[in-house]
Design goal:
Order of helices and strands: HHHHHHEHEEHHHHE
Helix content: 55-70%
Distance between the termini: 23 Å
Number of helices: 11
Mean pLDDT: 76
Shape: globular
Strand order of the largest sheet: 2-3-1-4
Largest sheet: 4 strands, antiparallel
Number of strands: 4
Length: 244
């Protein structure tokens, strides 16, 4: 809310109206309110958790219907029924298919991931709050292409959502092959530091939710294994490492 809320640094409604849907595709072109943004964020968290535990793959129809209900901001029999119909049509036209789930949830590593994420959340919130209350403008925006290992869709989903939930950073795009995250950074000081922190976050996510062979590789070679594995994709999308 401090960044793009109705009373934020860059309120979303006038910004979206100025740039248009072609330059900034978003559901918020249809409607924006802080409450609607919170509902979408909550739905994203629930869906991400469903992906981690495999519920979305097992129960795709209720998951898709839940997103539809969230978009309407109200739970009602009509919204639930129409959500089920829309979800059925979408899943019929675009079936998910079957995938082998090679990862599993490791409670101890998951707690470490959540603690690290909570710390970064507090740290980033303090930085953004200081930016709001002080007169000096320290904003230095940039979009950084971050090659990651991309060991599974679950890990990519967790990392991308964790970045977006942290104030001051937002995942704009996640590419699967090669595995690259495009991240908007509000206070960009060092591109390589942003990449190192993201790779560290990915390492924690792999230990918590990734395939066993990748966890073993991390144990044997450390996080340098991830950094070295991403060098092959150091120049994604036509050789562009960062965009400002």
């Amino acid at each position: 809310r401090a960044l793009a809320g109705e009373r934020g640094l860059l309120p979303a409604p006038p910004y979206l109206q100025a740039v248009g849907s072609r330059r900034a595709p978003s559901l918020f072109h249809l409607h924006y309110s802080d409450r609607f943004a919170r509902l979408l964020a909550g739905a994203g968290v629930l869906l991400a958790a469903g992906v981690v535990v495999g519920a979305v793959e097992r129960l795709p129809l209720p998951a898709a219907a839940m997103v539809w209900v969230a978009l309407w901001e109200r739970v009602s029999p009509a919204n639930v029924a129409s959500g089920l119909v829309v979800a059925l049509v979408v899943l019929t036209l675009f079936p998910l298919g079957t995938r082998h789930r090679s990862g599993r949830v490791r409670p101890g590593a998951a707690v470490r991931f959540l603690l690290y994420f909570a710390w970064k959340l507090v740290e980033a919130s303090a930085i953004v709050a200081w930016e709001v209350v002080t007169p000096r403008n320290r904003i230095n925006e940039g979009i950084v292409a971050i090659p990651i290992r991309g060991v599974s869709d679950v890990v990519i989903t967790v990392v991308a959502n964790a970045i977006s939930l942290t104030p001051g950073t937002l995942t704009l795009e996640a590419r699967r092959s090669p595995a690259v995250l495009y991240v908007h950074v509000l206070h960009l000081r060092d591109v390589e530091e942003v990449r190192r922190e993201t790779l560290h976050l990915e390492a924690l996510a792999i230990r918590a939710f990734g395939p066993g062979e990748m966890v073993a590789a991390l144990d044997a070679e450390g996080e340098e294994f991830l950094a070295g594995a991403s060098e092959a994709t150091r120049r994604p999308a036509g050789g562009e490492e960062e965009r400002r």
